[in-house]
Hints:
2 domains; six-stranded antiparallel β-sheet; 6 strands
Amino acid sequence: MILRKAFELQDPDSGTTSPDGMSLAEIQAVAREVGLDPVVVERAAALVQQHSIGTLGRLFGGPTIYELLHSADGEVPREDYGKLVEAIRRVLGHQGQVAELLGSLEWQTVGDPSQIHVTISPRDGRTAVRVFADRGSAGLLTYLLPGIAGLLGIGIGGAILEPTTLVGVGSLIGVSLGGAWLTGRTIWKATTAKFRIRIDNLMRGLSQAVDESAERSNAPEA
């Protein structure tokens, strides 16, 4: 995944994949042999999404927790915080809520079932970027609506078919709720794929903006 991301950063049309189970140093060694800059590989490693399946994720059929990390050489000055907030809003199309805590820039979604929290922390000559997302509430809503439709289907089907045996009642319930679960799972997978692209684009744009800002702050005065 890291090599694939590195090739995307250096050559978007490469489509190259990598074997699993390799350390960052091993991946960088392989990258040198195929002409990839180790610095690009390190950046790609930071962009590769870390996600947690968890109990809800196993139930829904996909992760609900995401964490993306990036570290830039240099400290982003506070006067650039406004530009970084605009970069976040531009990608996500969401105003969100902004705060500054102990010198760190904090941004988070408001009123969105897919909660996204961004932290940008300049410390000790570097700037750490963290994008954390929790889609637990979105998953519950995704399955709730088809579930309600399934319960209505049980009532309507019962009124029409009027099953008189436990087998008939069980079959009606199973078909209705099973269809609702499959509908919810299909919707969840589709929205999950779109959400991954969304936060990947967020981290890509934000890390580039942070790198440029930190580089300017490190540049020697003329």
